[in-house]
Amino acid sequence: MNMEKTLLEALGRQPGSSADFLNEARKLQAMDNEDLADLLVKRKLIPEGELLETFSSRYQLPFWPELTLENIQDDFTDLVPIHFLKKHLLIPLMTAEPDDTGNDVAGRTPNGKDQAGVVIAINSPAAFPALDDLVRMIDADAYQVVFANRSTILEAISMMYDLKRDSAEQLVQDMEDTGTIAIDEVESAADLTDDVGDAPIIKLVNNILTQSIKAGASDIHIEPYDEGFKVRHRVDGILYDLVSPPKWVQAALISRIKIMAKLDIAEKRLPQDGRMEVGIVNQKIDIRVSTIPTSFGERVVLRLLNKTSSLLELTELGLSDQAFTAMEQLITAPNGIVLVTGPAGSGKTTTLYSVLSTINKPGVNIITIEDPVEYQIKGIS
After folding, report:
1. 3 state SS of 135
2. Averaged confidence pLDDT in the chain
3. Vertex 135 angle, CA 133 and 139, to 5°
4. Is the full-model pTM beyond 0.90?
5. Coil, helix or strand for 73?
6. Sign of the CA dihedral 341, 347, 353, 355?
């Protein structure tokens, strides 16, 4: 709480701080279940950059809007669990020489002297205790501390641990070399970049999902054939080959996906539908899973939906003037029906939710029938 009082005092000295803002911040201060700084940013009472500038001034540590990832040291990925860095929002970035880059970097060392060393980015003063633990983990004789944006730190963490991960092709090659797979029935992790197990099949599935999400794919197809099978993903309406593992990997790969989607792994003769939610960096991805039996094994389709992406307004859909005028007339009519059709990834769901957002007003009661519900919109059942 002392840190939060210090934060309020620092914010009160900032130019333009209004009485209303400080009163609202003091109300939030009484909420012990969450960090005050996080609450201020989440409630949009203060931009994150402005808050970090306040921290920078208060603690005499620089604020870096962009992190320098050149000459980055990735040895720490073997020493520090990724969930520790994500929980406390901090990351060691590089081994720095005495500052000759023009960046104003303050150093902290056990003996209190300013020295060049490992640059550690943090998002909040609340990370100072974890910072000391991190320094012990990586055995840093000297280190420098900077403030950085939450999203920037999370992206840097994921990037560094992704660089340590094997590619899908390498994972398949390793399985071919060993010739065996142990199916580990582990539930899906909250975040794909977290370690959920050492089984090669778990790593392969996570790698396929991660690559597809980062590529902006709308769906993933697992297609069995006579002597092998293929994994492809669709980006901007076009299917691209991702990896072609050997045939004996097929059953384990599909079983892992069915476990994550809570489907019956013993049922292989009937179609099944399920869903799962995974995370990567600060994105939440909802995945619909469909399996269909074929002559050469089950064919699986995974539909990816980024739940953290903002909904588009009707004016942002790219409709022609004529189509936009017609749509406006249709959705404001007292009754009727609108059919939205098109292939996968063409924007049907986006269009319908844009329409719902447009007509969602306090004086209108809206109930939808959806299977599944893909976005939660306040005011709509």
Report:
1. helix
2. 77
3. 120
4. no
5. coil
6. negative
